[in-house]
Amino acid sequence: MTMPAMTLKLRCDATALNEILTDLDASLKSLPEISEFLIRLLDSGEELFRIDSDVLPAPLAGELLVRLHPSDALRSLVTASRAGDADLRIFEHATPPVELLDVNTTSELRQ
Predict the structure, then answer these.
(1) Residue 78: which of 46, 111, 34, 40 has the closest Cα?
(2) Could you tell me if residue 74 is inside a domain?
(3) CB count, 10 Å around CB of 74?
(4) Is 78 domain-assigned?
(5) Contacting residues for 46 by C-beta, under 8 A, at least 6 apart
(6) Residue 54: enclosing H or E segment and its boundaries?
(7) pLDDT digits over 37-59, tens only?
(8) What range does the domain containing 80 cover?
């Protein structure tokens, strides 16, 4: 007795990854020095995206949905590039963000 053939449909949702890659592409065009940091990120072995998979509910049984999400490292790179920060310092304040004099800014902490 043979078992009936089972079909598994694989779907891929890369919407979140595509959006951030579109932003990165725009940043590379307006701030070419970001490319050096992108190359370093690629060479580091750091993950650029993560994969989540979901077996879809009964009405869609036989389907597997794979979602691609940007990694924290890729998000950080794009966030800094959007801010026009070629040194990739994501948070830097020229003046304290609050009026209290005893609050250290990110720049002051780095020194």
Answers:
(1) 34
(2) yes
(3) 21
(4) yes
(5) 71, 73
(6) strand 49-55
(7) 888 888 888 889 999 887 666 55
(8) 9-91
pLDDT higher than threshold 50 for residue 8? yes
Residue 61 counted as domain residue: yes
With a CB cutoff of 8 Å and minimum separation 6, the contacts of 65 are 11, 12, 13, 53, 54, 55, 56
DSSP 59: G
Number of structural domains, the chain?
Answer: 1
At 19, is the secondary structure helix, strand, or coil?
helix
Does residue 14 sit within a domain?
yes
What is the rounded average pLDDT of the residues 2-8? 72
Can you give the pTM of this predicted structure? 0.62
Q: What is the per-residue pLDDT for 27?
A: 87
Residues ≥6 apart with Cβ < 8 Å to 44: 73
